[in-house]
Amino acid sequence: KKLKFGKSKPNRYVLVTLATIGCGKTTTSVGLANLFPELIEHIQNDNIQSPGKDKLVLAALEVLSRKPVVIMDKNNHKTVERKQIFDGFQRLNSTIPKSKLKFICLNFLQKPPKGDTELWNITKERVYNRGDSHQSIKVEKDGIGNAEKIMRGFISRFQPLNTSVEPDCNFDYIVELDAHQENSSLENMKKIVTALQNYIEDLDLKTPSETDYLKAFEKAKLYKPTFSKKISATKRKPVYFAIDVPQKEIIMNLLSTFNIDFFNRLIKGRRVQQDFHVTLVHSAMRKQNDMKRECWDTYSNIFKSDISSFADTKINIPQNKRCLLSGEYSADIKLEKVVWDSKVMCIQVKIVGFHLREKPVGLPCGIDFSHLTIGTIDKSFPPVLSGVMLKHLYGSDEKEKSKIQEIKLSEEIVFTRLPLYVFMN
Ligand code: GDP
Ligand code: MG
Q1: What confidence tens digit (pLDDT) does each residue in 217-234 have?
Q2: How far are the Cα atoms of 95, 145, 372 from residue 154, in angstroms, in the given order?
Q3: Is the CB of 183 under 6 A from ligand 1?
Q4: For residue 311, is pLDDT > 50?
Q5: Are 185 and 30 in contact (CB under 8 A)?
Q6: Ligand 1: does its nearest atom lie under 6 Å from the Cβ of 122?
Q7: C-alpha 286 to ligand 2 mean position (Å)
């Protein structure tokens, strides 16, 4: 039946998508917003960096203070997510009278996606072609295997719409869509406009011409997000563990007293490392021998217990590439000598000891000659050249040795209680 509402206090419409990945939620939504920029605005979960159940609802309410229609673009594939939306509006909406707030479901799936090979093929193909043009699923960077795993997860968790029970009974209206055909998003745009025209009286939705539709659809297909979502640490992989050395300024001052030409060139060329650290073990070392593998496992177990405690206490799972191990581990180091050749400069250090809280603790180091890289002269030289240089310095190849220079540090320079961190890709 057609609903009637007053003109002075028009309704507000929340369009909620229900789908899996690649069904064309974003394309359909962007297309509609292209057609009716004054009336419809699109917000998407993928543009929200850290999970927080109210964020999308708050964004929707902000839109509704300006426009009558908002599309909440998210898979909403589980009933609990739909419930979160209704609950969120209930709690957070203080401006729109409840009777004026209407929820419309955009139901992209007419049958459960599990076992629907036709849907799987079309959505997989689309996600594949989308490439890296997505906030967090980067097919070119991370491979289609990763994307398929994420897609399968959504499909297996999917809970279909059931309007006879909570929470789906709270929808005022359902628009039935489909994602199976070649131009499904174009068809879906038309279906939504027609449905809204039939259902809503207080919105002046002019019927777009075929060309308008096509233009909006083509433009929507070219949509590229400007925002890139960082993946949480649980999906990140550790690359190396290291001792953080925040005394960069002290070290730079010390080095400048020697007036080493190579050091001056590093500064001029802006080739000094951003953050100073002493690597303890690198993931690439795991394959070298059992001892290094064990060393890697030791640190990764510390980190894993960190992650699980993050999850337990609901503290933010770290989003950064660089993440301190739980503050209780630390290391003391002593600076021994400055070493450089024509490519790289480092300070060889001695790890004096590790601590767990205030107690000394034995922790391994997978690096043969511990050091802190100051910088390499060209970006084509990786910092790992420090280790290669030190191996030569203590090796028997006289020719290699002759290329290396060193200055022993006579003063005792010790930094204590330095935090340990993990660097992730
Ligand atoms: P979402 O994950 O549900 O938001 O899906 P997207 O809207 O991002 O669509 C996935 C990919 O398929 C994108 O690269 C779109 O450009 C493309 N796409 C979306 N709808 C259609 C359609 O109807 N036809 C074609 N050929 N491609 C589409
Ligand atoms: Mg999307």
Answers
A1: 999 999 988 777 665 545
A2: 34, 15, 44
A3: yes
A4: no
A5: no
A6: no
A7: 38
| Amino acid code (one letter) for 127 | V
| Ligand number nearest to the C-alpha of 43 | 2
CB atoms within 10 A of CB 95: 11
CA distance 244 to 333: 11
Closest ligand relative to 17 C-alpha: 1
139-157 helix and 117-130 helix, angle to the nearest 10 degrees: 150
Task: Tokens 């930094």: give the residue.
Answer: 415
- The secondary structure of 95-139 as a DSSP string is SS-GGGEEEEEEE--SS-STT-HHHHHHHHHHHHHHTT-SSS--H
123 close to ligand 1 (CB < 6 Angstrom) = no
Question: Quick check: 336 and 378 in contact, CB under 8 A?
Answer: no
Residue with tokens 């920029």: 37
Angle, CA 113 vertex, CA 174 and CA 57 arms, to 5°: 50
ipTM of the complex: 0.99
Q: Atom 22, ligand 1: which residue's CA is nearest? A: 183
- At residue 166, what is the residue type? E
What is the pLDDT averaged over residues 138-150? 85
φ/ψ (deg, to 5) at 413: -115, 110
**pLDDT exceeds cutoff 90 at 36:** yes
* Residue 211 to residue 182: CA distance in whole angstroms: 18
Is residue 409 within a helix (H) or strand (E), and if so which, with residue range? strand 405-424
Which two tokens mark 116?
């629907």
pLDDT (tens digit per residue) in 260-280: 999 999 999 999 999 999 999
pTM (two decimals): 0.60
Q: What are 318-359's pLDDT values in tens digits?
A: 556 788 887 689 999 999 999 999 999 999 999 999 999 889
Domains and CATH numbers, the chain: 12-221 (3.40.50.300), 238-424 (3.90.1740)
Cα–Cα distance, 322 to 423 (Å, whole number): 5
The DSSP element (H or E) to which 400 belongs, if any, is helix 398-401
